[in-house]
Amino acid sequence: MKLLAEWKYEPKKIERGYAGRTLYVNIGDRSFKEKPVTEDMKEKFVGGRGFGLKLLWDAVKDTTKWNDPENELVISGGPLCGITQYPGSGKCYTVFISPLTEQTYDSNAGGYFGPLLKFSGWDALEVQGKSDRDVILFIDGDNNKVEVYESPFEDINAVTITEALHEYFADSEEDKRNISVVSTGKGAETTNWGCLNMSFYDLRRKTPRLKQAGRGGGGTVFRDKKLAAIVVRKRGVGPASNNPADISVLQRTGLKLHKEIKDLDDQQNKMRKVGTPHLNEIMNEYHLLPVHNYKFGQHPEASKIHSKIFEKLFTQGIPDGCWYGCSMACAKAVDGFELKTGPLKGKKVTVDGPEYETCAGLGSNIGIFDPEWIIEANFYADHYGIDTISLGTGLAFVCECYELGFLNKDITNGLELKFGSKDDLMELIHRMGRGDDKFASIVGLGIHKMKKVFAEKYGAPFDVMEKIGMEGQGIEVSEYVPKESVAQWGGYFLTLKGPQHDEAWLIFMDRVNKQLPTFEDKAEALHYFPNFRLWFSLVGLCKLPWNDIEPADNVIKYKGIEAAKVPEHVQNYVDLFNAVTGKNITKEELIVQSERVYNFQRVFQLRLGKGTRRNHNIPLRAIGPVFPEEWEARAEYYDNELKAAGIDSQGLTTEEKIRKLQEYRLSQWEQLVDAVYKRRGWNKNGIPTVETLKRLGIDYPDVVEVVRKHSKPEDNWEE
């Protein structure tokens, strides 16, 4: 590969989880810079997503768009990232302005990139500018230098380029595990759904594995900058690489959780055998599995994609952790899978996943209950660099538009895109991956923009598409049916960045267990859980070891919301943070750490022209039935819903019942919005108050200026 630029830096020992500096690279002019991490930055932004947001805030203008050169990709792990004693400690977060939401987005991934970046001497990597040609950025943590190479690859798809770069930069087979590659693919160029793949080398399988920072279009930004790959190499990582304040606490806390996983995982969620697809049958049982663009939550063929099917397809008996020391081992894979379509037809590959979200999005939601089809679609989505969640929800929208007669074969260039049309839907994925088809390129814009194009270009009724298009703030809904849980409406549509389940999953707590009876209860849950979950993104941890394994006596010792918090595991995280950093935070201060970043990000959205009440849109499909077939599939249930709401449904047609329920639930939505905004310390328009900024210690002049610029006296709550 042709070397275009090189920069050498001084080695830096990690102190209590921090390198104390961040790496800036401008791939447009190929300049490099070291930036200090101040104590205020650690105190207020902690790491990971917090560092990413702060660096991005300083880098962009109020008018910056996703494809402007000053937009950045910022990747950061956090102070706990890379510890080897506790499961799920290899996560990093990528922050950027999204082509889908046109505001800040952050997306997490496993793999080795976050830890190896930090142990190479950097708390964050900040990439700005646009290259004039495809380039590969190489961070050499062994020789303390950063290099930019001209990419020699014609095929920049993820599997091809990742395999080649592990081979190129490693001295031996064993050495390949000291390397991590960030890649995407051609589909990230041709759609707004581009994902980032972050690798780890599986020595047992002798192949690199891919974990996705899938959501928000980070891969699309990556390719817009003409990045072909980012590579990091760092040898000699060990249990003390974070130089923690008290390694004995890490060992003791980790051993406790390892024992819980060993003793309880088979009784609870079987993460070590099936990973997240253990949810497939649970969601179907409770009418939460999205079927046919979220019209239904259950399907008679769902048993064909239950976890027992995938347990047989996943290779068993291999410790599938995506970072050292993760005994949860949920990164399942299908080995020796022979591809039946596409450019790699006939090749036997290892397929990472599918995860639950992919099984639902590229399965039930588009009417396909064929596990091998789902696996193939999963592989090619990763290979082309396309987020499987947005892809699945986007295809489901297209299928419903086709079945409603808004689209036809003339429009789709010969494809019959009905629910369950396996061959034609697979061909559409390949067309998106190749970028050679006009209709496929429209689909790749995402549902928010598809609605406008379908209306303007093909005469599709915009009002109907608004009802059935499952997106919020410009991003597609992840794969749970939210319509029967008021709290989950908030968990999806009162979020910072759109309907992604990383903020709050409250369906069981709200609807099944009846633990959130009032709007104030729901608002409290929508304060605590989004902030608690955000904390993982600050420190570099995976969420799954928090509540996908629980102490055996959790529901005996604790009740209601407290049990859902899994208090013993919350205390684990407090202990881990203090043991690494030497600080002495409490579980209450943990939430405040997150609240600071949560509110800072909300102001950031406001700065970019979003971040107010009108941006918290919710489609009617998300709150209840839109068409008679949805009602009639659960007629008795919905009739009872009307009765419980005090609505007399006698003599009403199904269409009239639907309208009555929609009116009632929309009034509930407005009450929920008010309650949540009040609890979060925001005004009626969803803007954090200056008092909230002061309480959290983020009343920086430029932050306060944004809030004051957009706040009006009439938006204040009445005393």
From TrEMBL:
PANTHER family hit by this protein: ALDEHYDE FERREDOXIN OXIDOREDUCTASE (PTHR30038), TUNGSTEN-CONTAINING GLYCERALDEHYDE-3-PHOSPHATE:FERREDOXIN OXIDOREDUCTASE (PTHR30038:SF7)
GO molecular-function terms, A-Z: 4 iron, 4 sulfur cluster binding; electron transfer activity; metal ion binding; oxidoreductase activity, acting on the aldehyde or oxo group of donors, iron-sulfur protein as acceptor
Similarity comment text for this entry: Belongs to the AOR/FOR family.
Cofactor: [4Fe-4S] cluster; tungstopterin
Protein name in the entry: Aldehyde ferredoxin oxidoreductase, tungsten cofactor-binding domain protein
Claim: Metal-binding is one of the keywords in the record: yes
Organism: Acetomicrobium hydrogeniformans ATCC BAA-1850
Superkingdom classification of source: Bacteria
Keywords: 4Fe-4S, Iron, Iron-sulfur, Metal-binding, Oxidoreductase
Pfam families with a match to the protein in the record: AFOR_C, AFOR_N
InterPro entries recorded: Ald_Fedxn_OxRdtase_dom2 (IPR013984), Ald_Fedxn_OxRdtase_dom3 (IPR013985), Ald_Fedxn_OxRdtase_N (IPR013983), Ald_Fedxn_OxRdtase_N_sf (IPR036503), OxRdtase_Ald_Fedxn_C (IPR001203), Tungsten_al_ferr_oxy-like_C (IPR036021), W-dependent_AOR (IPR051919)
Keyword flag Transferase: no
Domain spans labelled Aldehyde ferredoxin oxidoreductase N-terminal: 18-236
